[in-house]
Structures are given as structure tokens and as C-alpha cells.
Amino acid sequence: MSLSLIAFVWHQQLPTLAYYWVRMQQAHSGAPGLGLSDYAVAIDAREIEGIPANVSGLTYSSATGTLFAVINDPAQVAELSTDGRLLRIIPLRGIRDPEGITHVAGDHFLIAAERDRQLILARINAERTELDLGVAPRLGLGIGLNGNKGFEGLAWDPEGQRLFVVQEKSPVRVLEITGLLAAMHGAGLDLQVREWKPGRFEEPYLRDLSSVSYDVASGHLLLLSDESRMAVEYNRDRDPVGVLPLRQGWHGLAHAVPQAEGVALGPDRALYVVSEPNLFYRYEPRR
């Protein structure tokens, strides 16, 4: 094999894609999944006007029909339309380095502080113009305290009342937490923290994790990796059943997604991605 061919394979991460293709052939998906192979980009790298940089984390709110992202410097929450338009900015106090956000129910959200390994319960209603999280209920997890490689993304499972938390790297890790909301609301302490691992192998074949989303319809989990430039769907058995490469030419992308930091699923099966510094992507099923 020539050096140029080796460089091409390495650059395109074909071994990683081939690995997931083989794994998907072996998996039995159970409930129908997202069908990522049938997705195409509908909004490609739209700049979010009003956000110059540092967009991170993403979640869809069924209460408002809009998207919410966090900005880590300065600490803010941004509400976006489903076509990537900025609707409002909410400054945050009492938190540093927010990286992940997930909608729970109504006006309740959970926000992750990466460096401090904290999960904070926030209420964001239509009248909110700023938010003081210094007095909000929170849970600190002293797991893997290694600086700026901590909690990167959150996803809420409303049926199982579970929170999924992804750690960026060192190590790449997915945590599954139950009993969190009850504890934060003072309804008794029955908090369970487990490590979620993909089935039949020890850990994800991904260089890092930057975000996560949960599909209520199928019970599948979607993991986003910036360094591997892909999103991978796992079924209830924790086997990979779909992959969405975020590279030039795949699924209609004009250019590779530069630094994917957030992923969210909408009720119409649309899939949303945000990338630093301030780029917005929307994928839709072709059929």
C-alpha cells in the first residue's frame, strides 16, 4: 500500500467506518431505529447570527418546539429555531464552563458544568432574561477530574427517568444516572450511577465524545464524536445500528463539520448538529 493511500485511509477514517459497518451487520436492532443511512443534510453550516463563537451542547424542547444550546464563554443559554435562527440569549451566573444541556419536561432543563463535573437543574421559561444557577439544585460527581475533558453532553430519557452523561475522553465514558430529579426535588435519596457500555466490546471505537441524544420512539442512543467526525446510533442491546459520518461529501455535506459539539433529535425525525464556532446543521430523512 502506498504512503498516499495510507494517508487517505487515515484521513477519511475508513477503518472506523468499516468497523461500524461490520458491527451493524451483526446487530439485531429490535425496535426500528433512525435509519441514519437515509438522512441528507437540509441546512448545511448555517452561521448562527448573534453567536460569534463557543456554541456547545444542544437539546430539543417539546414544550416550546425550539432548540436550546449552551455557550461556555461567556456562560449563556441560546434558544434557536429549528432552522438555526437565534431567538434569544440568556446570560448565566453561578456556573463556569457549561458544555451540555438537555430538556427534561416543561421549563425544566439540566445543564452540565464540564470542569466542575456538576449537573445543575435550571428552569427556563419564556420570560427568563438571565439565570442565576448559583442557587439551583445540583449534583457534583468527582469522577475523572482531569480539567477540560469532562462532562460534554447530556440526554434525558423521560420514560426511564434516566440521565445519560458523556465524558469527553481520558477515558471516553457514558454514565447512566437514575433518581437524580427525585433527589434534587428533595423526594428522597435513591441515586444510582452506572457506566453505560456498548454491547459485546469494552468501549466505543470513538476517539472522544462531544454530545449525546436519546430517541424516545425507539429507545436508541445517539453518540456524537468530534474527533472521529461521526454520530453512531446504538439500540437497546447497546449494539451499533447506524452511523452518520460528518465528513465532506457524506449525506450531502459540502465540507466536513469542523468541530461538532451538540446533537439533538426532533419529533419529526429531524437531526440537528451544532459546531464550533457557530455553525448549524439540520439533517432530514430522505423518505
Can you walk me through this structure?
- The structure is a single chain.
- This protein has 287 residues and is mostly beta strands.
- It has helices spanning 3-12, 14-26, 180-184, and strands spanning 39-47, 55-61, 66-72, 75-80, 86-93, 98-105, 108-113, 118-123, 131-132, 138-140, 151-157, 162-167, 173-178, 192-196, 211-215, 220-225, 230-234, 240-245, 260-265, 271-275, 279-285.
- Mean pLDDT is 87; it is low at 1-10.
- The strands form 5 sheets. It has a 5-stranded mixed beta sheet, with no helix packed on it. Strands 1-21-20-19 form a 4-stranded antiparallel beta sheet, with no helix packed on it. The protein has a 4-stranded antiparallel beta sheet with strand order 6-7-8-10.
- 10% of the residues lie in helices and 44% in strands.
- The chain has 3 helices and 21 strands.
Helices and strands in order, then pairings?
Elements: H1 3-12, H2 14-26, E1 39-47, E2 55-61, E3 66-72, E4 75-80, E5 86-93, E6 98-105, E7 108-113, E8 118-123, E9 131-132, E10 138-140, E11 151-157, E12 162-167, E13 173-178, H3 180-184, E14 192-196, E15 211-215, E16 220-225, E17 230-234, E18 240-245, E19 260-265, E20 271-275, E21 279-285
Parallel strand pairs: 5-9
Antiparallel strand pairs: 1-21, 2-3, 3-4, 4-5, 6-7, 7-8, 8-10, 11-12, 12-13, 13-14, 15-16, 16-17, 17-18, 19-20, 20-21
Question: What features would you highlight for this structure?
Answer:
3 helices; four-stranded antiparallel beta sheet; disordered N terminus; globular; mainly beta; 21 strands; 287 residues
